[in-house]
Amino acid sequence: MQIEDVKVTSRSNPSQRVIAAAIVFAFLYFASDVVVTLLLAALLAYFLDPVVSIFERIHIPRALGALVVMLAVSAILAGLGYLVAVRANQFVADWPRYSAALRRVTTVFDRQLTSLEKGVEAITPATDKARTPQRIIEPPPVREWLLQGAGSLYPILVVAAFVPFLVFFMLAAKPRIWKATIELFPDEHRDRVRGALDQVGTMLRSFVAGNALVAGILMLASWGFFAAIDLKYPFLLGCVSGLLNLVPYLGALLAWVPPFLIGLAQWNTVGPYIIVASVLTGLHIAGINVLMPAIVGRRVHLNALAATAALLFWGWLWGAVGLILAIPVTATVKVICDHSEGWEPVGRWLGA
Prior knowledge:
mainly alpha, 15 helices
């Protein structure tokens, strides 16, 4: 009797793939605090890993090198935070001046809006006026405001509390985690997994380092520009506008807001506002289209359509943090598709 080996293979149908994708997206949405914290920690760990590797080459234990690196980064961030806090305290002390100027602008806008509403009411039929319900808006109680504020601070507290520890553990245990991750796959696929992990690490380090360098250049350029036009708080405004300029597409508009707010108390004509908007837009274009490609290169290779769709999707899913993580997450997906059998066309589309 001849015995034949029968190889049974099962393929998922489209409906199963849709259900699986829906489950993944639901998890990413409802567990956003956990997922975002892990992704931010992974980005920082990939960025700091070369420094820990240098310490390891000079025979410093990896755990000790990771601790030294984390303490140094914490000291640098604390110093920058102190400088920003000092300038912010000065701004808070002068806030009544700016709030008065802002109140005048909003009063003028409110008057124009009221006159427009009166004009619309004048041409509205009397029957429609009678049917229009009158709504009474009651201010929310103080307890509700406090609860809303506490809820908005929760993600920030989670990130601040867990990211340093996660980064330290990822740096200290990287060789063991790397080896255990590769051993999760069959022997015939481990070379492809190793290549994908190496490419992801190179891409993420290049992305974080490039963004940090571009942010520093934009902050220094904005600081010098605000100081040159004699705008108050140039260092604080330079830091805020430089960071906002890193946001693709929207950054050019967001970077206008801080100097416009300060300029309300100093400028009485529209000329300075046009100059500020033009210069900050030029810095944004130079940073996104010139500096980023020159510094990051083609290691984060996404086409314009994929990058825009990623910003829309991850920004909708995770808010402001999603705009920061959109490009590295999508670029990581592209690398995984490039090294996964059957998914190569998706990777080619993302980088076309």
